[in-house]
Amino acid sequence: MPPPPGGPVSSSAADAPTTEPAPPAHGGGDGAAKAPPAARTAPPAPGAGPGTRTALRICPLCEATCGLTLSIEGTRVTGVRGDRDDVFSEGFICPKGASFGELDADPDRLRTPLVREDGELREASWQEAFDLIAARVRPLVEEHGPDAVGLVLGNPNVHTMAGGLYPPVLLGAVRTRNLFTASTLDQMPKHVSSGLLYGSAVAIPVPDLDRTDHLLLIGANPLESNGSLCTAPDFPGRLKALRRRGGTLTVVDPRRTRTARLADRHVAIRPGTDALLLAALAHVLFAEGLTAPGRLTELAEGIDDVEAALAGFTPEAVAAACDLDPDDIRTMARELAAAPTAAVYGRIGSCTVEHGTLASWLIDVLNVLTGNLDRPGGVLFPLSATDRAPRPAAPGKGFALGRWSSRVSGRPEAKGELPMAVLAEEIETPGEGRIRALVSIAANPVLSAPDGDRLDRALDGLEFMVSVDPYLNETSRHADVVLPPPPPAQSAHFDFAFNALAVRNQVRFTPAAVPLEEGLMDECEILARLVLALSGMHGADPSAVDDMVIGAALAKAVADPHSAVHGQDPAKLAADLTGGSGAERRLDMMLRLGPYALTLEDLVKSPHGIDLGPLRPRLPEILRTRSGRVELLPGPVADDLPRLREALGARPAALVLVGRRHLRSNNSWLHNVPALNGGSNRCTLQVHPDDAARLRLGDGDTARVTGDGGSVEVPVEITDEVRRGVVSLPHGWGHDRSGVRLSVASARPGVNVNQLLDGSRTDPMSGTAVLNGFPVEVAPV
Ligand SMILES: Nc1nc2c(c(=O)[nH]1)N[C@H]1C(S)=C(S)[C@@H](COP(=O)(O)OP(=O)(O)OC[C@H]3O[C@@H](n4cnc5c(=O)[nH]c(N)nc54)[C@H](O)[C@@H]3O)O[C@H]1N2
Ligand SMILES: Nc1nc2c(c(=O)[nH]1)N[C@H]1C(S)=C(S)[C@@H](COP(=O)(O)OP(=O)(O)OC[C@H]3O[C@@H](n4cnc5c(=O)[nH]c(N)nc54)[C@H](O)[C@@H]3O)O[C@H]1N2
Ligand code: SF4
Ligand SMILES: [Mo]
To answer: Is the minimum distance from the CB of 159 to ligand 2 under 6 angstroms?
Structure first.
């Protein structure tokens, strides 16, 4: 998931900013994060030498947020193990977390800013780099308006404090409508369905993994991904515990994944047809009188409308499209209804598909119809320590879609964002409103978005580009200025996004484990300086940014009759804030204003975290719909249902492609860590034996795969783990472009699966690219 501009509660989640004027809701301090507070120490890791100390660090490499214990010699991370005392992860660690030290010390990481001179990137001082940004971007904005600046936010923004705190401020300062994030390659359908159902795009219910009796898991593979939009360290262990306590697990996936192998039932659906399956499950619940919404009867409106709208989606009607047996669909519905508690949960395979928003909506519809939304054992809304403190339920403003559209192909915005799939055309197409300068923070769209070759060319045609990225990679190689953040051991960590998506309420903070290296700049300060450079305040002290945010947030809080600080003196409240940097003071403020009234000091005193208890029901308080109820059949959803009905009769493509994630991968950027690249983590095309025979492909042969956007040539791996008619290729590979500085990744580059796409296939409501279940042709080379 991607990055949160809408305020630090996003998803994958973090893939997601929003354009609501950057919430000064959280903020500030005195800027420059040069002196991290002393790292707290823990008993040294076993086997550690005499000069070794240890420090705790929350792992930033996936959504599970495990606590790590780092062994440190001098300033080098020499060992990593799971922190057994961590209140949430209790010692769990995976191979990625174990490679934290190697990643931290990667010699290919940039250690100084780069600026382009006479076409070549050269090392530069921070001063030079920011001077250049201020000098080049402001004139473009003054001449062409704010939309001349495009902002691209990638996934790691949800994994850093800087990415949680500054993008909203940046967006507020630049006020461009050209905002693109990894969300439209990921979880935007979930934001849209939540926006429509609950009135808040960030109200995402998560499965109550530790208490549920039945988990219906759609298009997710947490045994490799470690979970998404469901933060749960040791997801595999939690699934095994579900089985041990007599619960059941059903997995819907066209591949027999490691997660599917753990399940009681594996449903190998034809890709892209989950919305049909889910509609049929709801249909069975209605037809057989199995609905039992309980207290949701009062809290939700439109249950009868949903019944009418789904009338045609019988198991028989969807069976051919899904390639499933209608009796199996009935059984699944009955099992769901019969379980004392159950949770329906979907991820990438349910989102990045043609009917992603409908599938995301139907998942919640099923949870409502079975009474499982907002009850223990079902799906619940977390309440994180930096969320807004609960207040009396009241109708809200609702959620609007399509408030503006993209300039070239008229795609509607969702959550303030335009589809990443249209970024290239917005740069290439001349005219007023064209993107002339691009700021890319922690993003690699050349590999992660459709048609990287086209984007590659488009980026070359920009008048100016900034990348905030530790690597010179496929995307940042186009930048005129590259601003590298420090290695992760040198940054403090707090999970703004994932605490709000966690299966248990808890809160943890880890200060920087080692001091900031001479010559590097904390990413919070980098982004604060970027805000200044882009808003005409270049040269001001970066603490001004945090002070501004703090001032605005406290002014709002003291004026709010529901706030615990109502009527107090904002200057006094600001003076009370603690923290070694502006970012930390902003965190302290958010904690103080939050539902548990904690302070940063509380977190520092509890280095292994504070457990805040199991998830609890939050309806109706969380609702922001105009009706003040869950609006179960929102207009835009009803309007999209005819498209789903058409899919009932569509002739399926002979061969479609789906992705896959490997445990030791992370999108496009961990292939440069030797321990994570190689072995079974390979860029191969998985083909079912029957398809391989038909296509005359042998194991290890090279195949040419062709889609709308181009062709790639890739080694074949024959396996019956994929179902017939489906091939699978992982994403994030294709490190063979010139000018990148990724010595390990470039030696085993793999191919870019997204070159098979041209960006024309999207889920229309959310603008999310169809990255799974698209037609391809495969032939021997
Ligand atoms: N075909 C296909 N395509 C996909 C997907 C798929 O399943 N199939 N998945 C999609 C999903 S879910 C996502 S989230 C996107 C991800 O898409 P992106 O966010 O564009 O890609 P990442 O590979 O996560 O790249 C992140 C960039 O951040 C940099 N980085 C790492 N750490 C930091 C840091 O601390 N600070 C900063 N500033 N930069 C950092 C890395 O060097 C890298 O350049 O990819 C999407 N693309
Ligand atoms: N090791 C590792 N962990 C990661 C990442 C990584 O790259 N590597 N990336 C992180 C990110 S950014 C994210 S968003 C999460 C994603 O977390 P997950 O969604 O759990 O991860 P995926 O492996 O993409 O799982 C998607 C599954 O959907 C299946 N699928 C494909 N098409 C369909 C379909 O049409 N219907 C159904 N039912 N299933 C389908 C695929 O076969 C695959 O098994 O993982 C995060 N964690
Ligand atoms: S599961 Fe995720 S958070 Fe935990 S150690 Fe592995 S990569 Fe890090
Ligand atoms: Mo993601």
So the answer is: no
